[in-house]
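Hello forum,

I keep getting stuck at the same step: I have a sequence, I want structure tokens, and every attempt I make locally crashes halfway through. Rather than fight my setup again tonight, could one of you with a working pipeline run this one for me? It's a single chain of 313 residues.
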Amino acid sequence: MSVYNEQSEQVSQSIDSILGQTCLPAEFVIVLDNPKRNDLKKLLMAYSTQIDIIKVVFNKENIGLAASLNKAIKLSSSELIARMDADDISESRRLELELNELERRRLDLISGNIVYIDEGGNVIGEKSMIPEDERLIEKILPYGSTIIHPTVLMRKAAFNRVGGYRLLTTAEDYDLWLRMIASGLKIGSINNRVLKYRLRDNSMTSNAWKTYIVTKYIQRLYAQRKRTGKDAFKQDDPQLLVKLNDETARQKFNQGQRHFTNMMLNLKERKIWCAFYQLSQAMFTTRDNFCYIANYLRLRMVWVVNGRRYHHV
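Reply #2:
Ran it on my machine without issues. Output:
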């Protein structure tokens, strides 16, 4: 777990949900990546004093999520690594269910499904079904991720084999999954709802542009790796930074994303003509919105075409 700027109460709930697992981990490594949060430091020190399995690391400066997770995993002595976010809540059988399925199917990584909670911890929705079979996930991942990062349980050897997380501003987990499947590793999922995933205010839209641009960059790297066996990753790629800082493009893209969100809501309510109108508005807002929707539709098509063939039993 990496802790940055979460509420103390939420961090306590998150930690307690791991300590209450039916399959208790051998160790729980927590990195505080915000040296200014003395309240969180005091909280984590109290936990480490009282609970033997908890190991706490205090970063002297903010280094980001990917670097903090790399540090935590390097310090871990276990063969299996479970991810956890500092504001989410794991169901009590999460690790038991994931471990059983990881071993039964001989996977290198497994994730689970979630329910959504708000800032107050109230359940506000459930995520739809996710693909489970590793062969289906391998086909889908190049178009987008169905792996839910804070639900992941993976083998440390698999993580080390591909070099861990790379230092990206977002979507570092998606980059890791693609490098794993490119290396022949097996990623599966279960549809058990093993975690309560907290949605923060504006969390669905505030980083939409950044996530889209970095995701496209990651997908290009994957295509390079499939063709040549390596990619041209740069931590501070200048072209990527220019695109990320294009404020005009960001605003127009977010406008298109609002139409896309409305389309999905109309589909859920079976308002077909309203959904079609919102889709047309979204697709023609900008070229980036068109590309986003085209990629989303490709993902859904791959899922539908291959779903029955790779139906997990």
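Strands lie at 2-3, 28-32, 54-58, 80-82, 89-90, 109-117, 123-126, 153-155, 187-198. If your local run keeps crashing, start a new thread with the error log.
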